[in-house]
## 1
Amino acid sequence: MLETRKASGIEDSFGEEATPLPENFDSHEAGNQVRNELVGRDITDNPSAYARFAPVIDDYLKAHLFGDIFARDTLSYKDREIATLSALAAMEGLSPQLKGHFRVSLNVGLSQTELLDFVQALKTSVSAKSADTAGDALSEVIAERYSAEGIRVSRAGIHPPTKGSPDYFTGTAEIDNRFGKHPPSVVRGATVTFEAGARTAWHTHQHGQLLIVTEGSGLVQEWGEAAKVIRPGDSVWIPPHKKHWHGASANSPMAHIAIVEDPQGNATEWMELVTDEQYSEANK
């Protein structure tokens, strides 16, 4: 393969050599400690069926793979897991192994966001099929972790609301981020309270948005269409990539709950502010 790459004009540079291991290095003991760290529990006495059937295989893995190879300091544990996940995602029928290595990846410090970014990189740089396989496995692993935690209640008032940025809002709007994403769910939401006359800038949402009006009277408008009045109890569905704004009417404050799907942290694309002329026309 290296010769083929070289013939194609690709120059592969060689990495640094690993630091030599000490003479008294015990690969079996070191490997046992590394494996326990990776899986997050003590499996010195490995209960796996293969280890019971052929203990020599388990000894070899501990001493050579987790001992000798993992002791080489040219790659971090995180780097090794990303490389392993990449190889597993490219092959079929290895979902159990993928889930196992996603668990290890979380144990060694890779975040859920980094692993979701990894799945997205597979989609854009490898194939949709490999990304779907990896994404399904990751979703199951994350769901396991959150299910183990049980039901969580987030109390109102713990986090103070923030003021909407003047880059994205005209007038005074307060944003209370009521809930973030709880993987495998990619849904997050906030309560937004607008003073009379306040509104968002024009914007779009990658996966759409749901608004539920809770107080006051407001407006929502799609680009090129007439504004619509919204009142408490109304729900508004805004399809993906529809340019729009929403906010309070000129003579009344308004509050709504806003819910979006945000798998990659880029659910909203902000655009220009709504002009006073556009807003006045919407209030007629």
## 2
Amino acid sequence: MSDAMARAQRDPSITRPRRRHGAAPRRRLSWRRWLVGGGIAVTVAAGIGLVAWAGGPGVLAKRGVAACDRLLIAHGFAVRRVTFTGAQRTPAKAIARAAAIDGTRSILALDLDAIRARVEALPWVRRAAVTRLLPGTVRIDVEERHAIAVWQHKGRLWLIDEDGAPIMAARADAHPDLGLVVGAGANVAAAELRRMLGREQALAARVKAAVRVGERRWDLAFDSGTVVALPETAPDAAWRKLAAMQARHGLLDQGYGRLDLRQPGLLVARPAKAGPVRRQAAGNERAT
């Protein structure tokens, strides 16, 4: 220890040099100023909002809300950035238009539930979440629907999702990769049909349309012109049996107009042209 420091400790009249006022790092002061200013703004805004709420929906209330917003924006709570995640088919511009965040309201004054409802009204959006990231960012997370089929009903075509809900109108030739389901109730049953057909993919690739009959069962129209009637009960078993018979004997390519599998253990075949109806046990896979 130096002699000067030792004397300073022994002699109380010798004082240590004080840090000059205002010499704190500029960043720390800026952060404190932001906190103090923001706290004052929020407190005053809350007071104005309380007065506006108490005054009802009159002119005074509207002026109070506007003054509240201006104060919050002036103290750093303006919306400076809006981000989107999860959107593939929905353009960011469409989400921005639906959100309608134009910068005239402070971030604390935004009605997040109303923004979410407007975004979820977009055709491809299943769910949306809207989050404030203070002081000035709004994040919109989107979960989109997945189209599984085209639904034909009452002369119109619709893209439908896994729940059978219409997404948007469709053109007949716009979605060749999606199956066509037809009739009342076909949209609701389409997801289960899709799973069933997927178990025999080679045969499923030849299905051109699936017609819902009485909202109970399916008629499948194939590329050969043959229509196959599946039963109401255990259609998956009939589908597997049809795949086995097609693999062994090519039933769909023998000129039949209709193959009826509705009766367990029995196949009823009707020729495409006028001719006798052929019946055989489904277990006997010899083509006739």
## 3
Amino acid sequence: MAKVVIFDSGVGGLSIFSELVRLMPEASVVYASDNAAYPYGDKSERYLKTRVKACLDTLVQYHQPDMVVVACNTASTVVLPVLRAHFSIPVVGVVPAIKTAAQVTNNGVIGLLATPGTVTRVYTDDLIIRFAKHCDVIKVGSRVLVDLAEAKLRSQTVDLSRLKQELLPFEQAPVRPDTIVLGCTHFPLLLSELQQISPSIRWVDSGSAIARRVRTLLEQQKKLKPEHAGIYQAMFTANTTSVTQLKPYLFQLGFSALSILPIDEAFTVFSEPMAINAVTVS
């Protein structure tokens, strides 16, 4: 049976998880959240390279997956070359869907809504030069949307006024973008609210494309077995109140077990994974 590790600093990667299991219900998934170091968006590149590699070393050794998906735009734009050189299994990253946006825009103006780190990275500028050179690109970095998405999955009401405030740079532009890239995996979790505020905008993310890429690679490895149903586990690097608050949503998504794999700031695992009130699926 195919097994995939999806890795993120928070819960944004659950948007990738949903696309992946919709396309491949036969694949087993370990969703690993490095919530001890959340958020990644304000971390240095040096820190991220060390931290992400240390976490994935532990996860790959423990779970022996067929593939890793780095479901974090910030980490992907920094760490992918390091991970691909280090691991023998495929490592799939998530980058802003700028190419897609540039292909579907009608007025030639697109927006990029991502974390402050992602919008300022050279990697992002290179994507714009390669795929959207003919477009005007308005970049907006937001930390607020990450927090709103995290809160939403813990059953808290999304503050639409705060969300609207974050979109003002697009609304106040000389020419309003008709297409906006959701350049952080957290942001598709707020799609219904974004559509409510700006129904005429075409919102683009890379979730479905990533799922198709994972499926192609697993088919090449002949790992997919349609007769099997996937098993979904969630792991966190810190046992916090927010993890407990997240449990009902994880249950809805079909996760059968939650556990803690503590990894301290020195990037060392100091205990075996601890089960935390495993979710029972009836």
## 4
Amino acid sequence: MNDDVSPRSFGHTLDDAGFAQIRDLVYQHFGIVLSEQKRGLVVGRLQRVLRDRGLTNFRDYIDLLLADKNGSLLAELANRMSTNHTHFWREPAHFLVFRESVLPWVQQVSPQRDLRLWCAAAATGEEPWTLAMIQRQFFAENYRHWQAGLVATDISEPALCIAEKGVYDNDRVQPLPQDLRALGMETMGGGRWRIRDEMRKDVMYRRFNLMAEKLPFKHPFHCIFIRNVMIYFDQDTRRRLIARLVNSLLPGGWLFVGHSESLGRDDANLEYVSPAVYRRKSESQ
């Protein structure tokens, strides 16, 4: 939806005080920064929520949000405010680094054959499915000897439903290299593709809010992908999130961010590898 849409071009209008309250709620709970330029987008995305709930104004909707005890309305707000536009093989250089550097490193440091990978902004599933295909291709016949599951999380429940269903239109799939497509997908006809059944057990999808102060994982990861989500956070939110992510990596573990989300090279706990690719420094560094 166009960010420049006027907040008065829809059936419901949002005054300054109401926008400030929604903006603060979104930032407090999800870390997303909504500038004044986003007001039209907020109004547009919440129109259907108001209609579905039989509300005639934003004031009543905000009162419901503030009184929300079980978090269902806040979850719905997160679904509306999150953006999940993506496609297969996005920013492909990262997938090449994963195949050519990360997986060989895991082979060296994991004699127990345990690969722990987290996609922290899974959106509609294109990224985690691609990584699962690369894992299977890399390990080939030895894949069955590895515990190479992948955790994929996102805050948007509708996006996760699409990811778990694993059905995509041809234009989303087309950028994926043909060898990976043949390995992990099958055509449904009519310009649609689906993830093969044998791939589905390789990825575990879960809803998770990155603003949680404690990450719900027992063991550190070899690799974390968190691409194209931190552009919606301010500097302080990014700094605190990165600190939690680094603490969730093994020494030498890999962190991939979006190309527009460079972390700089002054983090004492991270080593710059290549654009938007970092590694947690070992204890001896």
